[in-house]
Amino acid sequence: MLIAQQKFRPWNGVFLNDEFLSSPDGARRIVVQMMRLYEEYSSEILIEAPGVRSEKDWDVVESLLRERDDYLLSSLVGRDVVEVGDDKMDEKQIGKVNKVEESRTSRDDDDDDTSGSTTSKRRKTSTSESTGDSLMKSNLPPTNLPSKILNQAAIVLFHSHDVRLHDNVALQMASHHKHVVPVFLWSKKEQGPWGVRGCLEVVLKDALSNLDKKLKQYNLRLVCREGEDSSTMLREICNECGAGAVYWNKEHTTESRIREETYRTVLQEIDVQSIECQSSLLYDPSSPSLAAGFHGGGHWGTLMPFKKTCEKQLGMPRRPIPRADTFFMLERMKGPNEWPASKDVEGLNIAMINGNEEWDKPILDRFPMSEDDAVANMNTFFQHGFAKYERDRSRADIDWSTSKLSAHLRIGSLSPNELYYKIEDSNLDYNDRKTFSRRLIWRDLAYFHLNSFPMMRDTSIRLHYEQTEWLSGEEEDARFNAWKTGNTGYPLVDSGMRELWETGWMTQSVRMVVASFLVEYLRVNWVRGAKWFHYTLVDADSAINSMMWQNAGRSGIDQWNFIMSPVAAWQDASGEYTKKWCPELSKLPKAVLHKPWEAPTQVLQAAGVVLGETYPTRIISDLKAERSKSVEAVLKMRRANQESNSDRGYDMITLPDGKRTVVFTKKEFRIDPQGNVIKEATQSKKSSSGISKVKVGKGRGRKGKKALQKKLLRQEAAGKK
Q1: Which of 598, 590, 599, 601 has the alpha carbon at shortest distance from 621?
Q2: How far out from the chain centre does Cα 586 lie?
Q3: Which helix (H) or strand (E) holds 339?
Q4: Could you give the 3-state DSSP secondary structure of residue 663?
Q5: Strand 660-663 and strand 651-654: pairing?
Q6: Rounded-to-integer distance, Cα 626 and Cα 524, Å
Q7: Which of 400, 405, 376 is nearest to 539 (CA)?
Q8: What is the DSSP letter of 652?
Q9: Helix 303-314 to helix 430-452 angle, to the nearest 10 degrees?
Q10: Residue 287 to residue 273: CA distance in whole angstroms
């Protein structure tokens, strides 16, 4: 009837083509196509109430939504989203599940025909023991579990990396069950040195508290338990709830793999299914298989080969679950008839502040940790900083030069998939958005490294680098303590370390400055820096943190091919960053702000600066000499380990599969079999154009002969001028 009406009396502003008006089937096809477009761009569908005038109309709407979801399910087949026990679902399994779900839907619809009213029918659809509407609850493939288990309670384990409701794969998968019990199990003992500690505890506790508040809006709650053994707590809560399955998102750390294996064993003993999902990274770091050697524009385990391999072997990252689907899922989700005993989040032994100093307050003021805060933060960055990120990302003195989303990604209050497609779907040109987008690939790469080298948090990936001689004894302690407290006498370094101590954060470019300073100039073992960062960062991530420190310490996969000057301070070109965190220097002219030891006496006096009293003298004064000692220590170690040296002077490492591969090695560390630093030829006869022919090294980051010839032309032109 509606089609007939539109043929002769179309609504103002509405155009319907001939295919739509030809038949109900034609109209249906077009509507479903439009719904898929809405889904693709994460846009919500609003249903106009006057258009749904009866129960039959609503059935049509639900049918259209199911048809859309069937399409989405087929597009997700083969993605490594979920594992049931030890078996990943393949296409045949998902196809069987879809048929089962369709038959259930059909049976449920037949049962619903006996309902007495529209209201009772809608209520039965949302709370029925059947899972017939489960495709409405999630656009992810349902697990291959029988209805008997789906009619039992599902426990969803939240951890320190997935504290959110939206685009939480484990929660979405569990929504197919009759009852869902969100659970957080806390064991301080299980955290160890690389678990949740220090500042990370502060933001985790805030995130859990906000998660519980959000759940209560949907008549759900977060069940919290605390003890020494999380697997024992899990067994107990499964028995109390009569759980048929436990869902969790894999954390991908060395400790979590052991813990999750214990969970699987315990659950198998009590005949409860374990379903492991992937929701904290774009890719499962155990999935890509990288070839040894130099491929895809880089050495093994560097960014571009990893990115290209993931896209080739695993496809593009999955799109996030639409927010509308999350809302409907939560509206339909039902908790147990009787909730198990629980501790309040505030009662957990997390971030317990002793004494009168509320050191957590500045951290929470800067990083309130909820899903709403994460979205607000993301939107503010996209409004004020995203378009300028490529230009400003290294600046510490400019607001929103970086996104400040790292803590939300670490805690999981923001989905990496949502952020990824927020970037990719933007109107910004590829060259203006690629670096920010690749930050998310860097996260995955760090976990790929940790998966490949589980010991990397405190042991060199290039194992022979464990023999590097670092400073030791009282001098090492004095330098390290000056560094960690922001009292080195180098204003940019001190500003970064003071910001870190007070707020738990600093921008990536400053992290690199302070890391380089500790390793290159103070000659302190990188492991001490990694441990301090892990304790003081709100975004403390043992994989990402150790990847940076390994590379700064030269022992990582992607050894830094640069030195970060503690004096040049281009990260703080205006000086405002240093003035904020080293206020005792705020009256100094910008020319000497980052090197006050060069200021004339009268300038220091006018600014009220007394070196050694109001601001510390430099912990080291001869940067060049200190760095020479640092370089020599690496060369000495490499000369003693020629078996780990390639014929071109590069380091060799052993991969998890036993194969050997070359990894990038900085030019100043490349040695020949006799232990001599390999020198590149620099001059030869001039060409007819007057440009010297130069033997160009093939080190990473070089553009080759053409780029060097252009540089020489510019220099020659400048000389003529």
Answers
A1: 598
A2: 36
A3: none
A4: strand
A5: antiparallel
A6: 11
A7: 405
A8: E
A9: 90
A10: 23
231 is in an annotated binding site: no
For residue 389, say whether it is annotated as part of any ligand binding site. Answer: yes
Annotated binding residue 665: no
How does strand 223-226 pair with strand 179-186? parallel
Report the chain's terminal Cα–Cα distance, integer Å. 83
Predicted pLDDT of residue 551? 98
Q: Provide the 3-class DSSP secondary structure of residue 366.
A: helix
Using the Cα atoms of residue 113, residue 115, residue 116 and residue 121 in order, give the sign of their dihedral: negative
| Averaged pLDDT for residues 275-301 | 93
Query: Which of 425, 406, 447 lies closest to 287, judged by CA?
Result: 447
Domain ranges of the chain: 1-76, 463-669, 682-721
- Nearest in space to 241 (alpha carbons), one of 179, 313, 197: 179
With cut-offs at 50, 70 and 90, classify the pLDDT of residue 13.
low
Q: Where are the beta strands (DSSP E) in 96-217?
A: 153-158, 179-186
712, 701 contact by CB (below 8 A): no
| Confidence check: pLDDT of 461 > 90 | yes
Q: What is the pLDDT of residue 681?
A: 56
Task: Confirm whether residue 174 is marked as ligand binding.
Answer: no
Question: Poorest-confidence range of 140-144, 278-282, 676-680?
Answer: 140-144
Contact of 603 with 587, CB cutoff 8 Å: no
Question: Is 67:31 a contact under the CB 8 Å cutoff?
Answer: no
Task: Report in angstroms the alpha-carbon separations of 288 from 76, 204, 285, 310.
Answer: 18, 30, 7, 6
Helix (H, G, I), strand (E, B) or coil at 250: coil
Average pLDDT over residues 70-89: 50
Report which DSSP code applies to 184. E
* Per-residue pLDDT at 17: 74
Q: Is 80 annotated as a binding residue?
A: no
Return the pLDDT at 127.
Answer: 30
Q: What is the 3-state secondary structure (H, E, C) of 461-505?
A: CCHHHHHCCCCCHHHHHHHHHHHHCCCCCCHHHHHHHHHHHHHCC
| Separation CA 567–CA 493 (nearest Å) | 9
Please state, as a whole number, how many other Cβ atoms lie within 10 Å of the Cβ of residue 508: 16
DSSP assigned state of 355? S
Does 463 appear as a known binding residue? no
Task: Please spell the DSSP secondary structure of 520-532, one letter per residue.
Answer: IIS---HHHHHHH
| 436 annotated as ligand-binding | yes
- Reply yes or no on whether the pLDDT at 116 is more than 50: no
> Is 541 annotated in some ligand binding site?
yes
Could you give the dihedral angle defined by the CA atoms of residues 662, 668, 673 and 675, in that order, rounded to the nearest 10 degrees? -140
- To the nearest whole percent, how much of the chain has pLDDT over 90? 72
Distance CA 31, CA 34 (A): 5
Number of DSSP helices (H) and strands (E) in the chain, helices first: 31, 11
* Domain 463-669 superfamily per CATH: DNA Cyclobutane Dipyrimidine Photolyase, subunit A, domain 3 (1.10.579.10)
